[in-house]
Amino acid sequence: MKRRNLKKAMIAAASAVALVTATGSAVAFCGFYVAKADTKLFNKASRVAIMRDGERTVMTISNDYQGELKEFAIVVPVPVVLEEGQIHVTENAILDHLDAYTAPRLVEYFDEDPCETRYYDKMASAPMAMAEGAVSERRGDDALGVTVEAEYTVGEYDIQILSAKESGGLATWLKQNGYKLPRGAEETLGSYIRQGVKFFVARVNLKEQSKTGLKYLRPLQMAFDSPRFMLPIRLGMLNADGKQELFVFALTRTGRVETTNYRTVKLPTGMDVPVYVKDEFGEFYKAMFADQVTREAERAVFLEYAWDMNWCDPCAADPLSAGELRELGVYWSGGGEGDAIMRPPQQAQDVFVTRLHVSYDAAHFPEDLMFKETGERENFQGRYVLRHPYKGDAKCDAAREYKAELPKRFEQEAQTLSSLTGWDIDGIRAKMKTGGQPFTPPDKEKWWERIWGKDENKG
Amino acid sequence: MLSFSSPFPQIRDARWFQLGGQAAILGVGLAVLGFSVTVAQIAAAIAAALAAQWIGAALIAGRFDWKSAAISGLSLALLLRANDVWPFVVAAFIAIGSKFAIRAHDRHIFNPANIGIVAMIFFSDAAWTSTGEWGSALWLAALIAALGALSTWRASRLDVPVVYVGVYAALMIGRALYLGDPLPIPALRLSHGALILFAFFMISDPKTTPEDPRLRALFVAAAALIAYVMQVHFFISDGIFYAPVMLAIMRILIGGAGKGGYEWGRAPAPFIRWTNRTPSRAPAE
């Protein structure tokens, strides 16, 4: 009891601080939106939002399934048999919004006349998307040890909750019912069965689907209580060729979420990069992410955003409204519509969002993702900075100095970009040249020149 | 004649190795792994542990021995995480305070840093452990194990991490075989940096484990079993930290705590025994 109150008081205090900070830097920042790197940059990407509070869990699963709708099927291990009311279908737009709000972002500053001096800026951000397994058809028996615990039609989906005694029976049942099982599925199913989990199996009900008038499938949601805070990824890896991209958006009260069985690594952030990156922010972000994945031996989960849902700075998109949050399972959220930006502390959302990005395959991620909610409330965002040089004349000493310093700065930006993305440094310099940042790269100093200097002997 | 001799014959107190090892791991954590612990938090943990030790020593009119306290402070810096500095101070005071306040047979019962961590993560949201920072890279596990092996060996307690990791591995591998899981899954769990650190630098504390080798093996095996059950069946990722506290409470209840006594630097150091060197007197501290 006491703890709760204390915590609330602390959160209220923290929000107040946040608000001050937000307003404070908004002045210094005055950013407009330039670009964001959204999840749509990635093929075969899945997005999962998870609300977690104690044992209460709401998962929202979305994927960019591109094939025939009648071919679509999904098998999700779930800890309990779900009642109809625990299953729901929501709108893609909410996940899109969450995606945009948390996306890595690009910020622009314009250098002012060095003879006057002050700052200005703009900003941008970039998001991403998610993937799934496939199947088709239906109807079956047991005697295979498979029990259909429940059957519902929710939205455009026909859903069955299965429990099984052994994997062979379940595999046979699924095949008889028209599901195509990838190789290795039986072993993985067997492991889940022995762990006592149930299987949530969904297919598209074409009649219901046509009523929606949509060309795509909407995200499925399920709400349940479970001590397990995890995301099953093993089944999805079986039929994947190559790596899959997964974005997890965790919505919690306490703080940042991390994986306990894989390293959680912060994405590099805050770097100055050449101005031309504005036009290729998506490429930049993908290359940087790929490079980071390699550096972490392909075994890490990346933190891309961790922020109090009450605000953002700079904002790639507005924070989610209380209604949207509620739709995603944040049951303590007010529910009414209305914008969340800079809400006063007494109406604080009390929601902390964590965005994790994983590029995974079975070789490097043998186990499901196990999560943990930490108390960490430090804000983190993937943010990259463009600094437009001042283009006017150099009419004063300060300006001449400023101009003289520019090539060094540009070279530094080129080096940063090259080391973040692995792109060729000369290619970067060439693009900078055409992109309004021409400069002659400084000559490489010979090592002996560092000892005796260049001109020493010339007297 | 070929004879083994310690490369560090004059260092009889294994805590020097523990201090060095933990400091090195913390350095690697900060430089390579991006540990989210600030210099202020590290300094606070160590300073508070030393201060608590000093106060405790003054209260019981005992000798101020800084090494154990510094080790506890470093352990907190390695494993505990918080938004603020104060949780480190509180954890350090709980850690060292428990050494003076909770005793049986004139010896402390709880592993100091362990009880500090458990008290903070169990009773408050202000601190947590960040197992996600460590990862399962083999080089890291090997580095920690190597440094830890040196330190536990010099303390004549190499059996502890060996038994702990052995039992934990047997359970994890057994589970994988039962479930039909691929072996990379237990391998992932076993090479986890925080687990290895715990095995080599925390549970191995000779002061809070039984002196009798068989009882000690039982204690350590039970700690591994409890950790496994909590993690795998109750989904409590901090199970490894809760286990020693539960066992210490059990030891108090059955009256087995504190009996026998390890003294730092007095344990027959393995090198010295092998070389037939006369064990010298207890070291000056």
Which key features would you list for this structure?
heterodimer; A: 459 residues; alpha+beta; B: 285 residues; mainly alpha; 12 helices; 62% helix; disordered C terminus
Q: Would you kindly provide a written description of the structure presented here, covering whatever features stand out?
A:
The complex is a heterodimer of chains A (459) and B (285). By secondary structure, chain A is of the alpha+beta class. Chain A has helices at residues 2-29, 92-102, 167-176, 185-194, 206-212, 234-238, 281-295, 322-327, 397-421, 425-434, 447-452, and strands at 35-39, 45-53, 56-63, 73-78, 87-89, 105-110, 121-128, 146-154, 157-164, 198-204, 220-225, 230-231, 244-252, 257-259, 263-266, 272-273, 300-308, 352-360, 369-373, 380-381, 383-388. In chain A, strands 2, 3, 5, 11, 13, 15, 17, 18 and 20 form a nine-stranded mixed sheet that branches. In chain A, strands 7-1-6-21-16 form a five-stranded mixed sheet. A four-stranded antiparallel sheet of chain A has the order 4-10-9-8. The radius of gyration of chain A is 26 Å and the shape is elongated. The model of chain A is unreliable at 1-34, 118-141 and 336-346 (pLDDT under 50). Chain B is mostly helical and 285 residues long. Chain B has twelve helices and four strands; from the N terminus they run αααβαββαβααααααα. In chain B, a hairpin with a 2-residue loop joins β2 (103-104) and β3. Chain B has helices at 15-31, 39-59, 66-79, 86-101, 112-123, 138-154, 159-179, 184-190, 193-202, 213-233, 239-253, 270-274; strands at residues 80-82, 103-104, 107-108, 127-129. The model of chain B is unreliable at 269-285 (pLDDT under 50). Chain A binds chain B through residues 3, 7, 167, 187, 190-191, 194-195, 227-230, 254-255, 258-266, 297, 299-301, 366-367, 370, 372, 374-378, and chain B through 33-34, 36, 81-83, 124-128, 130-137, 178-182, 184-185, 188-189, 192, 234-237.
